[in-house]
Specification:
mainly beta, seven-stranded mixed β-sheet, four-stranded antiparallel β-sheet, 51% strand
Length: 119
């Protein structure tokens, strides 16, 4: 699976962005999908995940109420809607695909898209 993340950019605090991750190469619907982020000087951390059939979505407590994950299997794309962005949301956001558990190892990773939130 090849993953291409997009949608990042510079936004003011309180603004919104929708990240997209387009998949190609294998049957997209067979994979659970996740979003991760890595802020400057910090380790990569889990943000949200969605099961392969789209029935289960999970957003880390830190971002519940502001971030929403969704997928469109017909378009082979997973989204991360981010609202009310804060400067501390500044990070490189990565999408990833998991053939197995959403809480285990992810098999494929996209290249990341930069999100910068100004105060």
């Amino acid at each position: 699976v090849q993953l291409q993340a997009s949608g990042g950019g510079l936004v003011q605090a309180g603004g919104s962005l929708r990240l997209s991750c387009a998949a190609s190469g294998r049957t997209f619907s067979n994979y659970g999908m996740g979003w991760f982020r890595q802020a400057p000087g910090k380790e990569r951390e889990f943000v949200a995940a969605i099961s392969w059939i789209g029935g289960g979505t999970f957003v880390k407590d830190s971002w519940k109420g502001r971030f929403t994950i969704s997928r469109d299997n017909a378009k082979n794309t997973v989204y991360l809607q981010m609202n009310n962005l804060k400067p501390e949301d500044t990070a490189v956001y990565y999408c990833a695909a998991a053939a197995g558990s959403l809480w285990g190892e992810y098999d494929y990773w996209g290249q990341g898209t930069q999100v910068t939130v100004s105060s």
